[in-house]
Specification:
Elements: H1 4-60, H2 68-71, E1 78-83, H3 94-111, E2 115-118, H4 123-129, H5 150-165, E3 171-181, E4 184-193, H6 216-290
Parallel strand pairs: 1-2, 1-3
Antiparallel strand pairs: 3-4
Helix pairs in contact: 1-6, 3-4, 5-6
């Protein structure tokens, strides 16, 4: 049975932990508001950009001069997976859910006879995946800057495009947590390269009714890399908001659990102290009667 001194030490230790988790919860809550606003503001632009390019791409898909980012290289053997996680933890299953989603996708592709390469964005994704997969490239870090900015997305997009131009992969897929609410972040897969083109149902609804200057191929060649960075940027903002939501929830649970443990330890301390007092009283009374 632990002594009163040990119990006091454990109670003080848990109280210190509760102060830390409570402070981290408040910090995450304050950052969540800004991150959620940024993610929600980026959604309409990213969605419209993607829809516009998809409709424009429908006009040139299948043509011999279509941009490679749109048409691909004609192969489907080597797949690049870009899992987007955080550099830090203490956010429940936020990072591990992306790791599991990436692992499941990689195993599926390997079972089909494909070659899989992984380019993790975020330290936690690399740490999770390098234990199982050998072909994990050095991760791209999200830390070192105040918040998420477009330059980071451009850096990721530039490296992905460079690898594609060097024929290091045929298909690229981004895996990230889509922010739904504070307690809901949904692992999502988005194909980056080649750009998915909606199927033409034959009635011309998928075609854009525009005139372009210069031609559509030139516009696509310029806009596709920019769209790649925009979609990655949107995913980063979604993931950033989801991280703070998950961290706030995790720290709230940790604070509650610490409070419950303090109550249990305090009750144990009081019972042990009462037992010691009772035993000392019995010893005193026994000694007095002996005299």
């Amino acid at each position: 049975m632990p002594s009163l001194k040990d119990l006091r030490g454990r109670i003080n230790s848990v109280k210190s932990t509760r102060k830390i988790t409570s402070a981290m919860k408040m910090v995450a809550a304050s950052k969540l508001r800004r991150a959620q606003s940024a993610a929600e503001a980026a959604r309409p632009y990213a969605v419209r950009m993607e829809a516009m390019l998809a409709r424009l791409a429908a006009n040139v898909a299948g043509q011999p001069n279509a941009p490679r980012l749109l048409a691909g290289n004609g192969r489907d053997q080597v797949h690049l997976i870009v899992p987007l996680t955080a550099d830090r933890g203490l956010a429940g299953a936020f990072n591990s859910s992306i790791g599991r989603q990436t692992r499941a996708l990689a195993r599926k592709l390997l079972a089909e006879g494909k070659t899989v390469k992984i380019l993790p964005v975020g330290r936690k994704g690399r740490d999770f995946l390098k234990r199982e997969f050998k072909d994990v490239h050095g991760e791209l870090m999200l830390g070192g800057r105040k918040g998420i900015d477009f330059i980071q997305a451009e850096e990721v997009a530039t490296q992905v495009v460079a690898m594609f131009d060097a024929n290091e992969f045929d298909v690229a897929t981004l895996v990230y947590n889509q922010f739904r609410s504070v307690i809901s972040q949904v692992p999502t897969e988005v194909q980056l390269i080649p750009l998915p083109v909606p199927e033409d149902n034959g009635n011309g609804a998928g075609r854009a009714m525009y005139e372009f200057e210069p031609d559509e191929e030139t516009i696509l060649a310029r806009l596709l890399p920019k769209n790649l960075a925009i979609q990655i940027y949107r995913a980063m903002l979604e993931s950033n908001a989801g991280f703070y939501g998950a961290q706030m929830t995790s720290m709230d649970n940790a604070t509650r659990n610490a409070g419950d443990m303090i109550n249990r330890l305090t009750m144990h301390y009081n019972r042990t102290r009462q037992a010691n007092i009772t035993r000392e009283l019995i010893e005193i009374i026994s000694g007095a009667e002996a005299i």
